[in-house]
Amino acid sequence: MNQDQLKQDVARAAVEYITPMLEADTIVGVGTGSTANYFIDFLAEKKGLFDGTVASSEASAERLKSHGIPVYDLNAVDGIRVYVDGADETNPLLQLIKGGGAALTREKIVAACSEEFVCIADESKWVEVLGNFPLPVEVIPMARSYVAREIVKLGGDPVYREGVTTDNGNVILDVHNMQIAKPLALEDAINNITGVVTNGLFAARPADVLLLGTAEGVKTIKSKV
Ligand code: 5RP
């Protein structure tokens, strides 16, 4: 089974997982990326069973609207019942690296506001130790070089993601060559560098549930944190 099929399988499983939560006033948080795109397409079949969505990127908002699914500004809703999004890596504690699609800041905000965070990923994203995937960091443009030098002091190898501007008007540094033994501490340390908006480690707010697509089927893994 190829990776794309696994992404579709977990997206479909996520819609089934959240269906019992869907009521007239339910707000669903929707992530960004190719797996999240499948989720949006399958969620369209449930349109009308819930109030609407908050999107973690302009791209996802556009896709939701193209299906006729309402999209709200986060400030216009009281809370988010469940947030569904992909990841670039997950460890067994369901701590994640996200931001491959440059949407990490809005993803982190939506995750923070959500009662439950359901991560959907194919098995290639499962790792024992985070860090093979370069860690994205969103940075205020004028601070780019300063932040890069500070990240080098932390042991990373930052690379400017050229040609990419985030939905918030900022730039991305991808930090290579870090084996992240202490995700919570590193998330904090990078976020404390002046000029960093946020980084793509989701350790302080990991996923609550992981739907992992494998050749043997979709596995449901609950957070032990
Ligand atoms: C976007 C993300 C995505 O969730 C992550 O990059 C996974 O993407 P995909 O589902 O395309 O593999 O964090 O910022």
TrEMBL record:
Pathway this chain belongs to? Carbohydrate degradation; pentose phosphate pathway; D-ribose 5-phosphate from D-ribulose 5-phosphate (non-oxidative stage): step 1/1
Q: Which residues bind substrate?
A: 32-35, 85-88, 98-101, 125
A Pfam family in this protein? Rib_5-P_isom_A
Q: What InterPro entries does UniProt report for this protein, alphabetically?
A: NagB/RpiA_transferase-like (IPR037171), Ribose5P_isomerase_typA_subgr (IPR020672), Ribose5P_isomerase_type_A (IPR004788)
**Known EC number(s)?**
5.3.1.6
Q: Which UniProt keywords apply?
A: Isomerase
One GO term describing the cellular component: cytosol
What processes does the entry annotate via GO biological process terms? Answer: D-ribose metabolic process; pentose-phosphate shunt, non-oxidative branch
Assembly and partners are described as: Homodimer.
Protein family:
Belongs to the ribose 5-phosphate isomerase family.
The protein's matches in PANTHER family, at most eight in alphabetical order, are given as:
RIBOSE-5-PHOSPHATE ISOMERASE
Protein task:
Catalyzes the reversible conversion of ribose-5-phosphate to ribulose 5-phosphate.
Protein name, as recorded: Ribose-5-phosphate isomerase A
* Species whose genome carries this gene: Microbulbifer pacificus
